[in-house]
Amino acid sequence: MKADGTDTDSTDTDSTDTSRADGDGKARARRARRSSEVLVLVRQLPRVSRGLTLALAVLLLAQATGSALLPLATGRLVAALTDTAKSMRGVTAGLVLLGVVLFLDVVLEPIRTMLAWRLGTALDGAMAQTTVDGALRPAQIGHLDDADVADRVERARAVGLGAHPPGQAVTALVGLVPLRLTGLVSAVLLGWAGQWWMPVVLGAAWVVTGRWQEKEIQRSVSAHAGETAQLRRAAYLREVATTAPAAKEVRLFGLRSWLVERFTTAWWDGMVQMRRARVSPRRHALAILLLLAAHLAVVLPLVHQATHGDRSVEQLTVALQALLGLFALGFSGDLQWMLHTASAAVPAALAVGALETGETGEAGQVGETGRLGAAGLPRREIRFENVGFAYPGGRGRVLDGLDLVLPAGSSLAIVGDNGAGKSTLTKLLAGLYLPGSGRVTVDGQDLRAHDPESWRRQLAVVFQDFVRYPFSVRDNVGFGRIEAEADEGALVEAARLGGFLGVEAELPGGWDTPLSGAYTDGTDLSGGQWQRLALSRALYAVRHGARVLVLDEPTAHLDVRAEHELYARFLDLTAGLTTVLVSHRFATVRLADRIAVVEDGRIGEYGTHDELLAAGGRYARMFRVQSQPFAVREDVLAGPQAAAETTPEGAGRA
Ligand SMILES: Nc1ncnc2c1ncn2[C@@H]1O[C@H](COP(=O)(O)OP(=O)(O)OP(=O)(O)O)[C@@H](O)[C@H]1O
User: What atom in ligand 1 is closest to the CA of residue 464?
Assistant: First the structure.
């Protein structure tokens, strides 16, 4: 277990290119791993808000002063009251001191609570922003396939299902600091009012037992963090049970009891680990004995001194109060637990925040990021040269020595079996992953040399698993070019070409309808409507200058008419663009200028529809298999005579 509350395997690897930290962030992440999570949290506070941290520090000092004054004030008052002379000056001084203490407590406590809340909220915001920023920073997405990074992101979101955000640690901290200061002040007062060995003995006992408890809590927190996989599973099961996407299947397949049972098991498995690490009965018994012995060692001499008149009433009163005040050095239960649990997210958030941008390009390139701009590309071609690729943590090579050319301004359809690597090709083309070997070039220049953002401005993509954003229709289309000025005409035109125009007219809020039933006046769409919307989004990017259109299974959810309309518009849609079309529908595929068949990690066949049919290879076989049912149907529709003639037997008879 490391000091940041992470286990050894998951923190010090930094094995992927993208998970290496750089510069300031790297140094901070390294420091974070070495220090305890509480120290890391404390170091963050002035960075988050210098003013609030300073104000809190001053308040805490004032409160500690108040706690030092309380025993003195009581001592003075009791001494004055028990004095046979009943000195009015003594009584007044005692009362004034008590008044100051009460005033400090009454006035400062609510201010401290409010400041702690504000600083805690600011810390929560800063850590959430750091996590989001870091997770989004790498230009590629390989880090999201990395279990270590997933683990850190999970911890950064606050530990497990308990979800204690770092802000709660601030609240715990400002509760604990005055306690500890009170303990220290009490030690000094006990020394003054008794003998100096007394606070040493009692303070040591409280510090030792307090440290034991703290270690138990740390073990428990790390056990909690070590259980993120288990708790993540529990969190997922809870999500499945309580949200809309899985609601249909859960009911249809009768998964209710199964889900409840699995959730309960996963939750308790995670929690039991924590409890096991937390409770050590032997140590607890030892702690109690140690504290009893230390108190007896101090109280008995005090009683002796009191009965033999060695100490004044004032000193005895102060000593007894200080004795109680020393409790503040020991175990502070929930506050300590909360402090450690809620701090655990901070080092993880810093580690995620320190993820680096991604692989850098060749030295000496131009452009804002030191790389080539890609505006207007490709002018000649996009080329895959001997490309090999395996997913991080994947089972093996998906692509192996793949060569492929996409002439600029033409369309290429990619076909192949499930899992052949077609979508992977599109992800490499978008620079979301980098080839393990070989290269992807644009007009002869390695894609790595280009600024990824600039290259992606040239792309308009509909992924197979496109996102259904629960935002307005306008946003869903506008995301195609988020930085573009609001352009109603372009939105309408993209929606028209994508086949969505008209759907929005039926929605309660038109273009501004939130696309989720979970929002007021929101509504969901059908699968096909979502697909049209995703296509409109890509076409909006085209309207704003994208030159490469990538369509991965663009008609999978469309009805026959919509699919037919898309074919009819295909040439219009793709005119002047470099188009990549991934599809299992050969009616769509045959519309492309060229077709590439992916098999065994390479391009097995490449040519026009007619050329590949004439070659009689894999493409021709796949095409016939898919068109056969329609041929039979046509025969059937043409009548029994025609059908008989098309069966092998019938043809033989004919
Ligand atoms: N993020 C990932 N991590 C690990 N392996 C992956 C990942 N994504 C895809 N794969 C694997 O890579 C292989 C190729 O997947 P890809 O999605 O490119 O296939 P495809 O040809 O598009 O398939 P389909 O026709 O089913 O859409 C598959 O074996 C898949 O399991």
Answer: 27
The gap between the terminal CA atoms of the chain, to the nearest Å, is 80
Q: Measured in angstroms, how far is the CA atom of residue 393 from the centroid of ligand 1?
A: 13
Q: Assess whether the C-beta atom of 391 lies below 6 angstroms from ligand 1.
A: yes
The ipTM estimated for the assembled molecules is 0.98
* Mutate-to-test residue for ligand 1 from 140, 387, 391, 583, highest number of ligand atoms within 8 A of CB: 391
Q: Residues 609, 513: one domain? A: no
Domain hosting 321: range is 18-226+280-353
pLDDT tens digits for 77-126?
887 777 766 667 777 877 888 888 888 778 888 898 999 999 999 998 99
> Pick from 545, 561, 584: which residue ends a domain?
545
Q: What is the mean pLDDT of residues 18-37?
A: 53
Specify whether 569 is located in the same domain as 518: no
Q: Closest Cα partner for 114 from 170, 159, 161, 73?
A: 170
pLDDT value of position 276: 63
**Residue 387 burial class via C-beta count within 10 angstroms: exposed 0-12, middle 13-18, buried 19 and up:** buried
Domain count, the chain: 3
Whats the size of the chain, residue-wise?
654
Q: Give me the CATH number covering residue 174.
A: 1.20.1560.10
Asked if 520 and 406 sit in the same domain, the reply is no
Residue with tokens 């518009």: 569
Residue nearest to atom 2 of ligand 1 (CA): 391
Question: Do residues 53 and 42 make contact, with C-beta atoms less than 8 angstroms apart?
Answer: no
In this predicted structure, the answer to whether residue 630 has a pLDDT above a threshold of 80 is: no
Q: What is the pLDDT of residues 273-309, one digit of tens each?
A: 666 655 567 777 888 888 889 888 888 888 888 788 7
